Amino acid sequence: MKDTIAEILKIAKEVVPEEKNSDREYLISQYYQYHPRFSSIKNCSPNSKVLDVGCGAGGLGHWKNYLFPKRNDVHITGIDLYTPTQKTTLDAFFKVNLDEEKLPFPDKSFNFVFMSHLIEHVKDWKALLSECDRVLKEDGTIYIETPSLHTVHLPPRSEFIENGFSCTTINFYDDSTHTVTVDLDEAKKYMKDKGYNTLSQGYCKNVYLEDALIRFGFHHQDEEVTSYGIWSKLLFAAGILLQKKAGTLY
Questions:
Q1: Cα-based torsion angle of the residue sequence 105, 124, 82, 24 in order, rounded to the nearest 10 degrees
Q2: Over the stretch 147-169, which tens digit does the pLDDT of each residue have?
């Protein structure tokens, strides 16, 4: 673990002249432009009805028109345990306790289900995926992103802070609301049995930008930018995009 932090600290302190005047907005926009999570909303079918499961602050509603293409045609419904601070970016919002309640929607209501860093918070992820399957239309897609299995072995956030970094969750258990890591291969098999194809799967990584993000974040004590760089470097997150085959039976 100490070697991991030492290697990242070495990157953070490296002087790269062409990065001297790096622009924060440019770094963040490029990070998202090529992130599978961002691509999933930009590439959903025209006029999609989107369900954001665990919408948090409501940022997905902002993303649909951030950078290109602008997706004014997309209609986003968010659900969460708490009311989002950016509720106005959503077309609708429902407060739902996913450990106790089913999704409050009829069968086949949505074209796209988006679930980013939510599945690791629920008690029964299979029950949740079954509900997502129920409300998804035929040929619809589901994007799932979650901390990688190995994050339970990463150095904790506190050790990065001790070494001068400003960052958020690094080790899985830095977030006390996490329950258990979810194996996306297991989730893929579970959904395949329900009639789903895997369109893409892999770690969320940007080799081109990660070092620049770490350096900028470290020197500016920017928690968001630093975290993006470290997450990429350590393969913190993994994502999978699944498509429901037409004719799937319940």
A1: -110
A2: 999 999 999 999 999 999 999 99
